Amino acid sequence: xxxxxxxxxxxxxxxxxxxxxxxxxxxxxxxxxxxxxxxxxxxxxxxxxxxxxxxxxxxxxxxxxxxxxxxxxxxxxxxxxxxxxxxxxxxxxxxxxxxxxx
Length: 102
Known about the structure:
The protein is an alpha+beta fold.
C-alpha cells in the first residue's frame, strides 16, 4: 500500500528533462500514458490511488528506457515487462522508505 504522504508530482525531471505530469482520462482502458518527445506523462484518475502511483513510476521507466536508448534493443513486450515490474517495485520501494534522504 502506498503511504498517504506519497504524492504524484505535477512535474518530474528525468535524466535532465522536465516532464509535465497530468491527471487526466487516458485513451481506452489505459492507466497511464507517456510521451517522451512531448515531455508529458498522463495518469488516469479513475483508478485507485495506489494504481495511479504505480502507473506514474511505470511511465517514468518507459521514458528512462527510451531516453537511454534501451527501448531500441528491447521488443515492445520486453519494454512493457520492464516498465511494469520496475514501476511496481519502485513505487513500493519509495513508499516503504519515505524516511530516506532525497
